[in-house]
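Bumping my old thread because nobody answered last time. Still need a sequence for this structure:
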């Protein structure tokens, strides 16, 4: 199976807590098409209590079998990259997955331990994904299966619908 690996950097925004008991909120805000020289867990900027962090880089793998999903993402009005994070602080945040497959992103969102956020897809990443789809996509036509006719009088490998007296538990002296 053909695959292509893209390395993407991940930026996150951390907002202060609304109440003094809250932990605050951290969400992925953008992906970078190239891995920067900054170390993971680097504070990029702070404005009005909102911090921007570089969390690190993660490989995003494009598979030939998923090109239909990638095409659906590119054809949508807003192509996105889904970033799944584990952890609520930038120092402990772990980038679990980065994907452009919208169905995989939806599946990741069902995990309660992960923070999954769709972020805008950079134009250069969209171009690479589009090139991969154009080169490797194969349309598989939908083929509806037809029911096979069944002869009810034919011998089958299935168990009989009505058990014989010898096979029943009740009134069987061998089974007591």
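Sorry it took so long. Here it is:
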């Amino acid at each position: 199976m053909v695959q292509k690996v893209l390395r993407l950097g991940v930026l996150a925004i951390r907002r202060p807590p609304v109440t003094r008991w809250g932990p605050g909120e951290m969400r992925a805000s953008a992906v970078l098409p190239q891995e920067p020289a900054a170390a993971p867990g680097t504070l990029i900027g702070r404005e009005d209590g909102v911090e921007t962090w570089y969390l690190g880089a993660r490989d995003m793998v494009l598979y030939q079998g998923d090109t239909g999903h990638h095409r659906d993402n590119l054809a949508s009005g807003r192509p996105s990259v889904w970033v799944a994070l584990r952890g609520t602080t930038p120092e402990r945040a772990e980038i679990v997955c980065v994907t452009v497959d919208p169905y995989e992103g939806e599946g990741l969102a069902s995990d309660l331990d992960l923070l999954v956020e769709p972020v805008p897809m950079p134009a250069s990443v969209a171009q690479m994904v589009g090139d991969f789809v154009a080169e490797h996509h194969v349309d598989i036509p939908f083929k509806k299966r037809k029911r096979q006719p069944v002869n009810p009088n034919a011998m089958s490998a299935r168990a009989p619908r009505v058990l014989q007296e010898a096979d029943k538990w009740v009134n069987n002296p061998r089974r007591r």
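The first strand starts at residue 3 and ends at 15. Let me know if any region looks off to you.
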